[in-house]
Amino acid sequence: MLPRGRPRALGAAALLLLLLLIGFFLFRGDLDYERPRPRGAAAFDGDPPADPGGHNGSDCILPRPRPPKCELLQVAIVCAGHNSSRDVITLVKSMLFYRKNPLHLHLVTDAVARNILETLFHTWMVPAVRISFYNADELKPQVSWIPNKHYSGLYGLMKLVLPSALPPDLARVIVLDTDVTFASNIAELWALFAHFSDKQVIGLVENQSDWYLGNLWRNHRPWPALGRGFNTGVILLRLDRLRQAGWEQMWKLTATRELLTLPATSLADQDIFNAIIKEHPWLVQPLPCVWNVQLSDHTLAERCYSEASDLKVIHWNSPKKLRVKNKHVESFRNLYLTFLEYDGNLLRRELFGCPRPPPPGAEQLQRALAQLDEEDACFEFRRQQLTVHRVHITFLPHKPPPPQPHDVTLVAQLSMDRVQMLEALCRHWPGPMSLALYLTDAEAQQFLRFVETSVVLSTRQDVAYHVVYREGPLYPINQLRNVALAQALTPYVFLSDIDFLPAYSLYDYLRASIKELELGSGRKAALVVPAFETLHYRFSFPSSKAELLALLDAGSLHTFRYHEWPRGHAPTDYARWREAQAPYHVQWAADYEPYVVVPRDCPRYDPRFAGFGWNKVAHVVELDAREYELLVLPEAFVIHLPHAPSLDISRFRSSPTYRDCLQALKDEFHQDLSRRYGAAALKYLTALQQPRGPT
Amino acid sequence: MLPRGRPRALGAAALLLLLLLIGFFLFRGDLDYERPRPRGAAAFDGDPPADPGGHNGSDCILPRPRPPKCELLQVAIVCAGHNSSRDVITLVKSMLFYRKNPLHLHLVTDAVARNILETLFHTWMVPAVRISFYNADELKPQVSWIPNKHYSGLYGLMKLVLPSALPPDLARVIVLDTDVTFASNIAELWALFAHFSDKQVIGLVENQSDWYLGNLWRNHRPWPALGRGFNTGVILLRLDRLRQAGWEQMWKLTATRELLTLPATSLADQDIFNAIIKEHPWLVQPLPCVWNVQLSDHTLAERCYSEASDLKVIHWNSPKKLRVKNKHVESFRNLYLTFLEYDGNLLRRELFGCPRPPPPGAEQLQRALAQLDEEDACFEFRRQQLTVHRVHITFLPHKPPPPQPHDVTLVAQLSMDRVQMLEALCRHWPGPMSLALYLTDAEAQQFLRFVETSVVLSTRQDVAYHVVYREGPLYPINQLRNVALAQALTPYVFLSDIDFLPAYSLYDYLRASIKELELGSGRKAALVVPAFETLHYRFSFPSSKAELLALLDAGSLHTFRYHEWPRGHAPTDYARWREAQAPYHVQWAADYEPYVVVPRDCPRYDPRFAGFGWNKVAHVVELDAREYELLVLPEAFVIHLPHAPSLDISRFRSSPTYRDCLQALKDEFHQDLSRRYGAAALKYLTALQQPRGPT
């Protein structure tokens, strides 16, 4: 049991004095900013104070404490919502960049963040990183009684309940705010646990503003704190001792008592931690200030470091974040941007020297990759098919549409060179969309800024953007489609492509058609949306089928790919469509690739088709093999806009092996079909026998 | 003088033995790979051996040697050609990322590398980095007599002459190969100078292959070396002592003697360094192997490191470079790719704590930036105009065209979304081109791969690609044009835009016209190339003026921007052009923006026009103000291909402040015109009085 309460207050005061003195001499004046820092102290360079029992001779220093090689380091982070999830990823990238130890991340998340981060880490496959999730919503009742004014909301307060929320056998943990960036190896921070005395349970850096001194403005009444108080953006917690000491009771008592005279917490958990420390100062181990360089409003952080090598952890603890005012903010910002735009795939590097069980699926993947034949002309295709792309679902804030029985989500995929299509698409499709974007980490930030500066896009919360990070030379078109499809939340999906603009009425019309055709009652059908194209770059979109037909007759519009590949859409029977008043059935034929509306649980796209060619055709074969009716809708249409060929297309169209590989992949696809559907699949093989040009 | 020659050979042998023994016990078995490494030795973690005179108590170690804070570290690199220049930049990025000290880089370069690197560092403006250049061509005679079979060619050998080539007052220098990547702070390497004994002059890491043991294959006869010999990818040189010791004579004698029996050096300078060390072993201070982890063919590097934190410098010393075989090559590759794609702008961060004179121009720039008003609606425009973009000229190998009196270079600029235009452009324009590309560091690598995989592009050595690195939200169109223009090497330039394809005959026709019109003899004229456009994405290019006129009559082609902004090209007088058989004069009119051929020394574009609008118009005003004749060529034409609006355009077209700013910039441009041309500029102001729509 830790000493507690009034009877030991005198001893505590003495200990505090001692701590303050040690702190002054060893921590380069951290606890007293006003005094000039002794020059020689700079030699400590952010290192912990020497153990008074050590052999601190004149020519040597104590070895820089390092945790045992390969020790598993424990880190806890509370994270809620779309924006914080993006922040956590940047924090984790900086941590992984410098780390040399295996890590176990304990993520306390709401449902949104869990969904995002679970997918992300599952697909990231970083060696020697283990992830555990904890349900923040279950912890809410423990802190929701505390009135709080801080921008972090309820989630900030959850750091208080970590000793009971984390596994009972977890003895030590580093707790981090989502807005910190590492500039050093986290093992050096972990090593500071070794300096805790028997009574110390919390390691904290002093607060780097005058907030707790209560002199920032008139009538400013902060929560009680020791001097400047401590900042809780970076915490070292001895969970074992906290549990023994009855931490839960302790903080609840303190909070309850202070809330008798104070209306609410201003800085969330930090106010309560400080009130406890004020009462029980022996609990705290002050940490060198460089482990939490705070860029808060009114920051005094410049007093903490004197050179770049001092900096260990930057804390963007202002609601202004990167726009905060500090003399060296440009340098800090560069560090932050470094990791924001850093290619996360590069962090998949093995932590050699520390054998750890590989991430789930990684071993299987390694085996499959090892079996590939590098001399195979289709090697790139096969490797691309096996590539597990890092996926960040709902990259931007997103509100799922309220459940409606006939609702339909537009599903598409794109890369950066088609981002300009989004505004027009939003104007044409007022319903929910699920879009997969194939981007680098840096492009994802460019995309974020693009959406934020677009009035059209930033006001739409029913469009979900799923970032699939680039890797490999081929555009993984069907993997992207599958990501977007898997994230659609309505019962129906419209499987479109990004270069098509739907008729303005299409969203309403599709929902009405779904209802009318009673697709909901188990009818297995694919509703075909006829596709057209314009070759004119400037183009006035038809507002009705009648107008569309007029443009068709005038030669301003064509049926899609009429000039190069009419087979792709011929079965839609455009002649019949002209006259049709009601939906009509059509039959599958070889190479048919219409745009369709199907129930969300439709077959997935075949990921073997990467790059360009046959990717949609194979999907429609699959629909037909599973006996989906094909029903053409008489009032539905989409129009393809012209564009220059994308880089991804042009790189492979000219490749001599490309066509050969595509043929090999098609053959393998048909073999798989026969295996799965037996004699019924024969018709697809027969259709294939007739030689044709490329799709 | 250093001890030399036979009489001291016995003493030398004893010293060598001692060195080997110390090396074995302290360098983790670096000098003897075969023996199992004692487990405890891992604690050295790449640190230098303890000074035997130090207080090496049981509970403490010697402080990790660090150079004094802010000490200027000296680094020398030999670099020649386009590809090595790209390598050096990646090396420098890795060095800058981890460095905390000011650096002085001594670059021994051929003319190509000097041109590239001088421009790069001048525009990079990294604080606390000084650059000096040394002419490699002048050093050639000193080493060209040595027959050499290594892939580095003559330039590898130049490391031998650094003691005389570098300034006489330079006492110590770290010498690096262009194919090394830092994974640590170079100051730790510099600190190893402190461990040199009085006699040691060269710090080297042992060679990590069996090459010098001579047992790799039958009849393999390497140069003489101590054991496995040393690798010269990373060298610590005591230049002062080498000069005193008569280094020049020493290496020349050794090389001459060995070349009596050996036909040539196989590994360039490294063979000669090893032969000298074999003869004078006391000269060498062996360095911990982690400072030069060699991924050569037959590498044994895996024996050097046991965990990731050991690695300090990776050396890609195989002609295969990244494709080398090593168990951990994926990790090393990731480190390399990290810096290859790292945004170099982020390395402009201030080295605070070490006040150094700012890079040339930086102070002036800071002042100008500080004077900008953040509340000014045109703030972004003004800041973009002041931005100094990092420029990497001739990013890819380039052979300047042989000088011809009437030759003309096509000048244009583009970003990644127009790279697909390059192949078509190459087919239409067989002459030299100077193209500025606005890219991120990562995109530059994507671009490199694009060119390398394109047969059309990779066979053209007369196309110079100049990478201008992205920074800021506006597309700096006129800054890009100025970069491309400044790098054109022919007497004339055709100032075009990337979306235009020239008539197949245009290059020949322009040269003939220049000759015929006697532009060379000081005639100040701009030859106008009439511009057309197609709105059709698929389009068959006319092979003659007659064919073009037929398409024009058929409505498949239009004069450029006929529908939106006819004023831009109206003065070209297309009606007259139809009939013209000879060049004809036209007069300037407001908003005229033709594509022109001018002498290379023409006025530069006004960099204040960033983003889109008025950027060419202002240039043509300037040509007219300087009294260039405007002569339309009767057989010349270019055709604009349709494309989706670029991201850069769409972001700002919708901006409400954009038009206001453009107007403000136009007004300021006209004020400047009046200042420079007085009353003559009045006509431009008058023309402006008539209100019109945007350009």
Description of the molecule:
2 copies of one chain form a homodimer. By secondary structure, chain A is α/β, with parallel strands linked by helices. Chain A has 24 helices and 23 strands. The first copy, chain A, has 2 domains: 73-347, Spore Coat Polysaccharide Biosynthesis Protein SpsA, Chain A; 391-688, Alpha-Beta Complex (Spore Coat Polysaccharide Biosynthesis Protein SpsA, Chain A), CATH 3.90.550.10. In chain A, strand 12, helix 14 (421-428) and strand 13 (433-439) form a beta-alpha-beta unit. In chain A, helix 2 runs parallel beside helix 3 (111-124) and helix 9 crosses helix 10 (269-279). The longest helix of chain A has 22 residues, at 656-677. Chain A is elongated and about 85 Å long. Chain A starts with 8 loop residues before the first helix and ends in a 6-residue tail after the last helix. In chain A, 47% of the residues are buried. At the A-B interface, helix 11, helix 15 and helix 22 of A face helix 11, helix 15 and helix 22 of B.
Summarize the topology.
The structure is a homodimer of 695-residue chains.
Chain A: H1 9-26, E1 73-79, H2 81-98, E2 103-109, H3 111-124, E3 129-135, H4 136-143, H5 153-157, H6 162-165, E4 172-176, E5 180-182, H7 186-190, E6 202-206, E7 230-238, H8 239-244, H9 247-258, H10 269-279, E8 284-287, E9 293-294, E10 313-315, H11 329-340, H12 362-371, H13 379-386, E11 391-392, E12 408-415, H14 421-428, E13 433-439, H15 441-452, H16 455-458, E14 463-469, H17 477-486, E15 492-495, E16 500-502, H18 506-516, E17 525-529, E18 531-533, H19 545-553, E19 558-559, H20 574-579, E20 584-585, E21 595-599, H21 615-625, E22 629-632, E23 638-640, H22 647-653, H23 656-677, H24 682-689
Helix pairs in contact in A: 2-3, 9-10
